[in-house]
């Protein structure tokens, strides 16, 4: 790898970040942290972007100007080369609960694309930041930080171990997490699939392309008429974005287990059965193929050498 700090764009040395993550506070606190941050008289300044996920809230500033906002003292702060070093580590999946997961890379990429489209990042800065994505991609490849383990694959494994007989499974959500779940669940353990989503036509189309699953096992419901049917589910897997608390009042005493990796969660801890959510569970303990500590140490050392030396 031939990239070093001398070849990184000078605009990046202005970098600073205010952040909260799951290593500093509880996951529950992050999920309840107010997303409404007022910057510069209610307007996000130029050369600033915000990254929010279930495990972090981060404001990146490349403007060279001091950010002023009400809750600044509630966040940690890092700047300069250490900020760049941390950001690359983040993109490599080394700051994630499930180390090497790819979602954070894609989420950060989406954050800067959104900022650029809304003219909050200059074109030059946008491409300069993309240099960091290139560096992170090289480190991921070099140290085998590329496996596709995530909350959905871990959730599928968790439910697989709990299902003893063919069961009725409810899936809530129609994004890539739901599709990933289907690729990792043992279909032989499924008697019926109740698929719940905002857009029924979307999940019907996805279901037709799922290999090895007969169409006869599917039933489709939208959010409005799904609640009554969920009571018939033995196991439930939920992966929905921006619908927090949608089923928080639901009690499922006949259901054996709910795995809710939604952000924020759809169900509450009082759902009435065995319940695993991002808020109350460290999913890393269920990983079957965790990345080796040696690889993590070597990758972090590589980032040190690139940025700090």
Cα-atom radius of gyration: 21 Å
Low-confidence stretches: none
Derived from helix and strand composition plus strand pairing, the structural class reads alpha/beta
Summarize the amount of helix as a percent range: 25-40%
Order of helices and strands: EHEEEHHHHEHEHEHEEEH
Looking at CATH, which topology of the largest domain would you report?
Beta Polymerase, domain 2
What do these coordinates show?
The protein is 33% helix and 17% strand. By secondary structure, the protein is α/β, with parallel strands linked by helices. The chain folds into two domains: 5-147 and 292-307, Glutamyl-tRNA reductase, N-terminal domain (Beta Polymerase, domain 2), CATH 3.30.460; 151-286, 3-Layer(aba) Sandwich (Rossmann fold). Helix 2 runs antiparallel to helix 9, helix 3 (103-117) runs antiparallel to helix 4 and helix 5 (151-162) packs across helix 6. The longest helix has 20 residues, at 123-142. The two termini are 14 Å apart. The mean pLDDT is 89.
Concise description?
This protein is of the alpha/beta class. The chain has helices at residues 27-32, 80-91, 103-117, 123-142, 151-162, 176-184, 200-208, 227-230, 293-307; strands at residues 16-21, 48-53, 56-61, 76-79, 167-172, 190-196, 218-221, 235-238, 257-260, 274-277.
Task: Detail the topology: elements first, then pairings.
Blueprint: E1 16-21, H1 27-32, E2 48-53, E3 56-61, E4 76-79, H2 80-91, H3 103-117, H4 123-142, H5 151-162, E5 167-172, H6 176-184, E6 190-196, H7 200-208, E7 218-221, H8 227-230, E8 235-238, E9 257-260, E10 274-277, H9 293-307
Parallel strand pairs: 5-6, 5-8, 6-7, 8-9, 9-10
Antiparallel strand pairs: 1-3, 1-4, 2-3
Helix pairs in contact: 2-4, 2-9, 3-4, 5-6
């Amino acid at each position: 790898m031939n990239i070093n700090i001398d070849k990184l764009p000078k605009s990046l040395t202005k970098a600073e970040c205010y952040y909260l993550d799951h290593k500093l506070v509880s996951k529950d606190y992050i999920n309840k942290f107010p997303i409404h941050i007022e910057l510069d008289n209610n307007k996000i300044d130029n050369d600033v972007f915000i990254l929010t996920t279930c495990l972090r809230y981060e404001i990146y500033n490349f403007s060279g100007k001091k950010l002023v906002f009400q809750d600044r003292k509630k966040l940690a702060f890092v700047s300069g080369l250490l900020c760049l070093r941390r950001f690359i580590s983040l993109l490599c999946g080394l700051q994630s609960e499930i180390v090497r997961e790819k979602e954070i890379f894609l989420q950060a990429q989406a954050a800067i694309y959104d900022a650029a489209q809304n003219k909050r990042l200059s074109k030059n800065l946008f491409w300069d930041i993309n240099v960091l994505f290139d560096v992170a991609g090289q480190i991921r490849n070099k140290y085998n930080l590329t496996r596709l383990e995530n909350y959905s694959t871990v959730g599928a494994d968790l439910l697989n171990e709990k299902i003893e007989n063919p069961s009725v499974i409810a899936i809530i959500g129609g994004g890539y997490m739901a599709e990933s779940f289907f690729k990792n669940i043992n279909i032989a353990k499924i008697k019926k699939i109740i698929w719940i989503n905002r857009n029924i036509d979307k999940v019907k189309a996805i279901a037709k392309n799922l290999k090895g699953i007969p169409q006869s096992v599917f039933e489709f419901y939208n959010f409005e008429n799904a609640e009554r049917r969920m009571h018939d589910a033995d196991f439930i897997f939920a992966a929905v974005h921006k619908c927090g608390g949608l089923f928080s009042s639901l009690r499922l005493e006949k259901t054996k287990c709910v795995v809710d990796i939604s952000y924020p969660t759809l169900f509450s801890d009082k759902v009435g059965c065995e319940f695993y959510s991002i808020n109350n569970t460290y999913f890393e303990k269920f990983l079957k193929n965790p990345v080796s500590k040696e690889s993590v140490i070597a990758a972090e050392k590589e980032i040190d050498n690139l940025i700090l030396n």
